Amino acid sequence: MSGLRSRRIRMKKSEQLGLRHPEQIRSYFFAEIPLMGIITVSGLIYNIGMTAGPYFEGQLAQCLYDIFRGRASFRDMARLALLYLLAIGVVQGMRAVKRYGVRQFANKTSRRMRTCLYHSLVHADPEALAREDMGSLLTKAISDVDACAEGMRKVTTEIFDTGVVMIAYTVMLLTYDWRLTLLCCLFTPIAYIAADRLKVRVSSANAAYKQSASNLNTATMDRISHAITYRIYGQEARRDQNYEAALTDYEHKSAAANLYESTLAPLYDAIAMIGAAVILYFGSRNVVGTGWEHWEIAAFTTYLACFTKLAVKASHAAKLFNAVQKASVSWHRIQPLLKAASPENSESDADSNVSDDPDIKGIPYVPDTQHNQGVPGAPDQQNDSVRPVTLRFEDVSTGPLQHLNFTVRPGEILGVTGAVASGKSMLGKVLIDEVPYSGRITLNGRDFSTLAEGEKQDAITYMGHDAELLSVSFRDNIALGHPIDAEKYLSMVRLDDDLHLLNRTIDDPVGSGGMMLSGGQMERLSLARALAHAGSILVLDDPFASVDRGTETGILRSIRTAFPDRTIVLISHRLYHFPEFQQVLYLHDGTGTCLPHAKLMERESGYRTLYEDQMKGSDFDAPQSKYDPE
């Protein structure tokens, strides 16, 4: 599904998740502003407090030296140790708060991404989805979302654990000896430069790894889905070889990606730690009084410990670059699927519920309160409460169709037909917000565009050209979880006879997507579902394309008997019953002519030709399944 309604559904879901633009990374941070505030406060306290470690380590070393010199006591050492423990306790407490907050942020981000991705896939254009590689979709839905969420977690963590603490350590080093600090810290940028130079290799290695993972998933799904076919045609060994090749390639690409991500860490550490040798030389000179500053043991110990921690954090920052590159590969893969639809101003309240239609003046269009609960109720419970609705198109244009004008009243059937690709199915999709339109559509005089989504669902029941059956039983496909007399509607579409011939029951499964049924049976089961949830307007797109004439006649008779007050739009290339309908909309030359059958036969030669050809039997009787009754 790729129309307006699908985009609105994705947009609504994104807004429910607190995301206005799920394809933008910053939206996930803005969605958790209170949590990010907690992370920021606790992160600042924790990382600035990290400087207490080197400071107290230096003071303890100095105190021990003074004890040996007789200038301090063990009580002084105990006091320092107690203060050290207290400071460490506060710092570690803030660390726990920050880490918990970051983990919560990562979990919520992953959940939001998965939810948006799920709705994007569910409401995607079936044709576009069919063109997408299934292995790639699985990788995007699982691996790529995890990689993105993990990358965002690492960035959030390292902003504080690397960025803030490095600033704190650098300020502390500068206060002890600014010259020595500038000298020993020259090697830190080298580690960053090395990481930046290697980011291209890291990105390409991870992109190759992701593609290989997609290929492996595709090979696995292919082997499972077509196991019987490969066995029957003796292709099992060949497919196993292809799978092994994909698995081997995955192992090699995974190893290469891990190599660049993991084994480069010692290189960053070694480069950053070169400065320690500089401190040992120039710092010792400060202690003996021949350097730039005059240090005691405490200052030297604090400075060396502080630089060591700074160098380690510097290497973490370099590794973070690699992690971000890895996450960016995944982000670019899933970003198109996370892209939100533009908001539509389609659910504003109507100015009035009273009709201005002269044919039904004074009759309000009010949604059925029992039916309007998000999911339609059972017809057995609603037949008496579904309100008659007049459907009117006023100068409506959509796609190739321009300037359509017609009115269908309760109890009437509008037959819609035309040549192939004349826009018949598009007309039905307008009424479910699948395609945009201009002009005015009204239901009892109320503008269709002002109805809320639930009101549209209550008013209009649509049976599409594709059956879209669920992989459950006949009963569940009809009832969809509601207390509906499914057997009644199975009988209306003449499927009860088919089940009897097949020695099956209504509670038997239909197979994956209805694969155990013939084309005609699939369409009739889809029609039974539409009738079981019938609203005020029934839009039926080619419901009799694969059934014989007798079956069509019987089903149509049942519909007219069961739903005498419904407004029915029947889209079909089968014209046998069109003379019985109140009106016929013939689509031609990018527009449509709506007249009773007899007048349309006189005015439109194209329609007359279509009808006469079918009455001669040249284009009417569809091929029958061996299970379709005569």
Descriptive tags:
alpha/beta, 2 domains, 6-stranded mixed beta sheet, 10 strands
List the helices and strands and how they pair.
Layout lengths: L3 H13 L8 H6 L2 H17 L2 H17 L5 H49 L3 H6 L2 H43 L1 H7 L2 H39 L1 H6 L3 H27 L2 H8 L1 H15 L8 H42 L40 H4 L8 E8 L2 E8 L4 E6 L5 H7 L7 E6 L2 E2 L5 H7 E4 L10 H6 L6 H7 L2 H8 L16 H14 L4 E5 L7 H14 L4 E5 L11 E6 L2 E5 L1 H7 L1 H11 L15
Parallel strand pairs: 3-8, 3-9, 6-7, 7-8
Antiparallel strand pairs: 1-2, 1-4, 4-5, 9-10
Helix pairs in contact: 1-5, 3-5, 3-7, 4-5, 4-14, 5-7, 7-8, 7-9, 7-14, 9-11, 9-12, 9-14, 12-14, 13-14, 19-21, 23-24
Briefly summarize what is shown.
By secondary structure, the chain is α/β, with parallel strands linked by helices.
Which superfamily, in CATH terms, is the homologous superfamily of the largest domain?
A: ABC transporter type 1, transmembrane domain
**Which band does the percent of strand residues land in?**
5-15%
CATH architecture of the largest domain: Up-down Bundle
CATH class (first level) name of the largest domain: Mainly Alpha
| Number of structural domains | 2
Query: What spatial order of strands do you see in the largest sheet?
Result: 6-7-8-3-9-10
The mean pLDDT is 78
Structural class estimated from helices and strands: alpha/beta
CATH fold assignment of the largest domain: ABC transporter transmembrane region fold
Report the strand count: 10
Bulk shape: elongated
Enumerate the spans where pLDDT stays under 50 for 5 or more consecutive residues. Answer: 340-384, 618-630
Q: Terminal Cα separation, in Å?
A: 35 Å
Task: Give me the number of helical elements.
Answer: 24
